[in-house]
Write a structure and sequence with these properties.
Layout: H1 5-19, H2 27-34, H3 38-50, E1 54-57, E2 63-66, H4 75-82, H5 97-115, H6 119-143
Antiparallel strand pairs: 1-2
Length: about 140
């Protein structure tokens, strides 16, 4: 399964919002930090808002916030918001019922895996990776 670039950008943007849970982030800011066109982000956020994953804040300093606790938003929620056709098992052109059944089973397992990963878990992994990179950099400076 290959996630579309639109879905990948949505996940990256959601992670950036998750890094700033109390402060709204404008699409202009996200456009700059994520290097994504503003019009593309507007389309992505329309879908995320429609699926109640983000909420907009109006006025000066407005932007977007995560709409739910990070523990309740899964990667599959984001994928389905952006690519709704992935919410169902893909219909495979197969030469036999057995082959079609196998591909549908695989599709269910992939979706189940994405449904088991929350934004909170991704944030924890991101923090660990940053911590490891920082420790590696510190030890490299000490050795030099």
């Amino acid at each position: 399964m290959k996630l579309s670039s639109r879905t990948q950008y949505a996940i990256k943007a959601m992670l950036e919002l998750a890094n700033s849970p109390k402060n709204s982030i404008s699409l202009n800011s996200l456009s700059t930090t994520q290097n994504i066109s503003l019009s593309y982000l507007e389309q992505i956020f329309a879908a995320l808002r429609k699926n109640q994953l983000v909420k907009s804040v109006r006025g000066p300093g407005g932007g977007y916030l995560i709409a739910k606790p990070l523990e309740t938003i899964t990667v599959s929620d984001i994928v389905v918001a952006i690519d709704p056709q992935l919410s169902r098992c893909a219909e495979f052109q197969a030469d036999s019922n057995m082959s079609k059944s196998m591909w549908n089973s695989l599709s269910h397992k992939i979706y189940g895996f994405l449904d088991s990963i929350t934004l909170a878990q991704l944030m924890e992994e991101q923090d660990l990776l940053q911590q490891e990179a920082s420790e590696t950099q510190s030890s490299a400076h000490v050795a030099a």
